[in-house]
Amino acid sequence: MFVFSKKLQLPFLALTLVAFNSVAQTTTPDTSLSEIAPIEIKAHFNSQAMLDLTSSARVVSKRLLESQNTNTILSAVNSTPGVRMEERSPGSYRLALRGSMIRSPFGVRNTKVYLDEIPFTDASGNTYLNIVDPVGINHIQIIKGPDGSLYGPNTGGVLRIIPNGLAPQKSNDKSLLLSAGSYGLFQQQLNIEQQVNEKYSFAFSQAFTRSDGYRTQSGMNKKFFQTAHQWNYNEKGQLKFLGLYADLGYETPGGLTEAQYLEDPRQARPAGGPFPSAVDQKAAIYNKTTIGGITHSYQFNKNLRHVIALFGSYTDFKNPFVTNYETRIEKNLGIRTYFSYEDHDIENLQWEMQLGAEGQKGWYDIKNYENNLGEKGTLNYDDHLENFQHFYFYRLRAKIAQRFIAEGSIGLNLNNIDFKQQALNASAIQGSKGFKNSWMPRLGLSYLILPEFALRASISKGYSTPTISEVRSSDNQINQNLNPEDGVNYEGGIRYETKNRRFIADLAAYQFNMKNGIIRQLNAEGAEYFTNAGAMTQKGVEASVLGQIISPDQNFFVRSLILSSNLTFQDYQFRDYKVDDKDYSGNAVTSIPKWIWVNTLALELPKRFEINIFHNHTSSIPLNDANSFYAKKYHLVQAKLAWTTGLMSRYKLQLFVGVDNLLNEKYSLGNDINAMGNRFYNAAADRNYYGGIKLMM
């Protein structure tokens, strides 16, 4: 375990003493819309034009990731309609695609996440998104809506994080960033990307971040390493390797009641009744994770290609909490492989198909001790669980007359959990929790009415099994009554792009009828457990417009002006949900705001000055199933000013300053839903600042 020091820490700075000998790029910072909204996305195995997609999708570009504070991806990801990312305290992330926050105390649920071809979501369904650092990301591809036919169980969608060094476009970029900010924030990032020759390239990314946090007991300390290598060993074969290590620790201040939140939002959860305070118990999470994977691709001929990825992960997880001290050792191994056949020889009939499988095996040793003021006490539970999750998929896609696209896919998912539980002074319990094999089909259509205007529609089955953390949650029980959530999603959309891509508009509407929705609850001791709601209806509309009002070729004082506006409407209701003698049918689904409106502005001025502004309006959020408590709506504004200049002809230097929560709103960016004692609120920081320097070579 680490100690949260109030002094500035500079570990690994020796790594920054690297000999850089590349010539600085000669391009100016003038931005085109394609840098923020790429014209293609690698959705469903191959790169496709955005107008050809049958899914609702978006690319979060490197440019967008760097537009605000570089220690988090939160603002950039939240600019995507239908996506909501929260940070309860530094390092404690939650991510929801179309409403999956209801079953996510922290982390990710209902959503499958990949690092290039390697599943980041482990065999149990958990995804430690907070261990990734923005310095190692080239871009993020987001596919919204259930897509279990190709990516395994999910009801929200799929994220593909493309690491530096594995993107199609190669570079020789090198950079070193140092920044500091309010509440003890310090960040150091180093990135090296090198195209060694025509066949081999690599990337190395390293970061250190620490913060004292806005609230008491909310410090964070994170060390991150990532390396990627790509070797085209002949004209047909390619090998890729990805390795990642993160050492993350963050304190958890706990939720506050409304009275405590209004009195002093910076306080940690105080002692109450039989429970000590978060400070006394040194409540925190410590996560050391290693991930590695190798991907081999071979193009047998112009039509047939085979891809196989072998991967594994190891996690050492510790969580001293108010009520207990939990430790977990998690090991995962897996494989993903598929054959792809493409035939593009006929101009008016181009088609492709894929056949493949993915499987993961996980081993989890979970122990719960008494928490004696941050130290392990008596061992109360010693559990061993094994999860074997695998699925098989087939997809066929055809493009007819360069206008009409039809694709169909189907997946078969199998999942089983074996467990052995040993409680203090009790006989061991051994058993298995099996889930019914599930077929997951999807059908999608797209029609190009005009060269700039496309219609799309899809129908797909969503299916998501409970994770290990839900079957065996912090109440230390094996919940054999918890079932997968599933349902059918109906979706339609339109997309418009001008020929010069100066203006882009996207609109999607969907209805997802979910059965057995998994919902987080807390027992009388404050430990969480999960239950199935009878049914939920999720109706939503997602709209975005993106326009380059001024482009560099217009020779104005303002070199470039890009605006975007993104609107999310979510009308989610419990259709049939009863707990004991309480009937919540007809209530708004817990944790889901009805409206989210996000706007961004990117402005470039002479002398290489850049201004980026981010605005997020989120409406009120129901905090419990009874809808008797709501978090208030808020407007969050962030701004960043950067100046880039040449340095000694070989380098570029960027100076930047930024402000978060410019309006000084009092809000919670990560509520504890259905919290015991109505401790819902985790206050976000008030107005705060940061600044730094970036050397690019």
CATH superfamily membership, which one? Answer: TonB-dependent receptor, beta-barrel domain
Mean pLDDT: 91
Question: Mind summarizing the main beta sheet?
Answer: 22 strands, antiparallel, barrel
Multimeric organization: single chain
How many beta-strand runs?
Answer: 38
User: What is the fold named in CATH at topology level?
Assistant: Maltoporin, Chain A
Cα gyration radius (Å): 25 Å
Question: What structural class should be given to the helix and strand makeup?
Answer: mainly beta
User: What's the level 1 CATH class?
Assistant: Mainly Beta
The backbone outline, from C-alpha atoms, is: globular
What number of domains?
1
The CATH architecture name reads: Beta Barrel
- Portion in strands: over 45%
For the terminal residues, how far apart are their CA atoms? 36 Å
Q: Low-confidence segments, ≥5 residues, pLDDT <50?
A: 1-29
Tell me roughly what share of residues is in helical segments.
Answer: under 10%
Number of helices: 6
Main location: membrane
Family: Belongs to the TonB-dependent receptor family.
InterPro entries: Beta-barrel_TonB, Beta-barrel_TonB_sf, Plug_dom, Plug_dom_sf, TonB-dep_rcpt-like
Subcellular location: Cell outer membrane
